[in-house]
Amino acid sequence: MVARAATAGRADVELIWRWLETVVDPEIPVVSVVDLGIVRDVRWHEPPSGPLLEVTVTPTYSGCPATEVITASIREALRHRGIESLRIVNRVAPPWTTDWISESGRRKLERYGIAPPRPLSPGATPPCPRCGAEDTECIARFGSTPCKALYRCRECLEPFDYFKCH
Amino acid sequence: MTPAADADDALFEYLLRLGDNALILSHRLCEWCGNGPVLEEDLAISNVALDLLGQARYWLGQAGEVENKGRDADTLAFTRDGMDFRNALLVELPRGDFARTTARQFLFDHWHLLLLEALAGSSEPRVADGAVKAVKEVRYHVERSDEWMVLLGDGTGESRDRINSAVCEMWPYTGELFESDGVVRTLADKGVTTLHEKLRDPWRARVERVLKRATIEPPADSFMHGGGYHGVHTEHLGYLLAEMQFLQRAYPGAQW
Ligand SMILES: [Zn+2]
Fold first, then answer.
1. Engineered SS bond to B192: which of B24, B124, B157, B212, CB 3.0-4.6 Å?
2. Which chain A positions have a beta carbon within 8 Å of B121's beta carbon?
């Protein structure tokens, strides 16, 4: 453990990004904070007091209650890897957008039963993530969390969440 | 006082207005949590409330930094007295029935979106950053409010009567939203915000377009209430604060 802590004292940034890929969103536990585009930057600083890792995160929605849990999870995951000197910076601008969700994040959402965000022409609805049917209808603009809307599939009749474009 | 100090005071006041509007309206919406007409709507209202609460936290946090006296968003929200609140009267009115909540939200949302769209181009990064973020959320609020207005207005006789009288009741509280006092003018001069009168015509056009679809006659402008932006509130705000601030008042500094 000592050896690992020593190397983690200034671990490679690429490696840290991979560690952060294990930190999941508390509300959608199949996607990581990296998949969602919540982590914006990872960099080392060299103040006189010794190396300091700075992780910049951005909130998805202003009122997202998961933000504090996410910050705590990142802190815990990195401390577990031996990073003690850590600063998490919350950056509002530029504002988070669903365009920042990675391809792998979109696939994971769909497999989990959440239709990933996509540009929809007016009146169009997202296809059902369960059976792929196009014939779906909106039940509520706001689903279980602010980032989702509730839809129903007219083919398999199952309700599903749609991750709204933002 | 130097011009710079004046400008900082104005910015602090203005950030309080943005924050308090969002905070107080959020609290009114929260009162529906568990009481919504249907489960989906209960969730939708709570989600709009959550968006507004997040925005309030941002604006009040910025206000505290500008003031630079060690007050953070929580301190500003939970330890100020009624006369120190800077929200418009519209948002503190009791939630009433679902029609009143909907009418108030509809009138507020359209103003809110127009204001935030203007603030997105602010010369002050604190203001622009918060507005750009909030605009995306408030667009959804507007869509939802518009749908409900049409659903209730063009619905049954009962729903039409109720939403119609709710719009008439809320209308005299909208005047305040379009006034520019010294604070707004000072900041508009510096490109931090826009003169609020400029929002009136586009607001009226947008609101009337939806009211028409809802088969509701837009009320004529007559007497308008005001004073919220200067701390002169209705009696309703005190009751709201008594509930909202209870815990921090009874157990100062409590955290969990
Ligand atoms: Zn289906």
1. B124
2. none
- Asked if A141's CB is within 8 angstroms of B51's CB, the reply is no
Q: What is the CATH number of domain B3-216+225-250?
A: 1.20.1260.10
Predicted TM-score (pTM) of the model is 0.90
More confident residue, B244 or B38: B244
**Whether residues A90 and A123 fall in one domain:** no
Contact A146 B57 (CB under 8 A): no
Is the preceding omega at residue B202 within 30 degrees of 0, hence cis? no
* pLDDT-based confidence at residue B36 (cuts at 50, 70, 90): confident
Does the ipTM exceed 0.85? Answer: no
Element at A159 (helix H, strand E) = strand A159-163
pLDDT at residue A141, rounded to an integer: 82
> Which parts of chain B are beta strand (E)?
none
Which of B43, B50, B132 lies closest to A95 in CB terms? B132
Beta carbons within 10 angstroms of residue A41's beta carbon: 12
Would you say residue A107 lies in a domain? no
**Of B71, B94, B70, B69, nearest in space to B19 by CA:** B71
Cβ–Cβ below 8 Å for B129 and A146: no
Strands A136-140 and A148-153: antiparallel
* Burial label, B164 (beta-carbon count in 10 A; 0-12, 13-18, 19+): buried
| Residue finishing a domain among A54, A73, A99 | A99
User: Of B127, B113, B91, nearest to B12 (Cα)?
Assistant: B127
Dihedral sign of CA atoms A88, A91, A97, A103 in order: negative
Mean pLDDT of A144-152: 86
Domain encompassing residue A132: 113-163
pLDDT tens digits for range A69-97: 999 999 999 999 999 899 999 998 899 99
Residues A45 and A89 in one domain: yes
Which residues of chain A are within 8 Å of residue B58 when distances are taken between CB atoms?
A: 62, 92
- Considering the domain boundaries, does residue A104 fall inside one? no
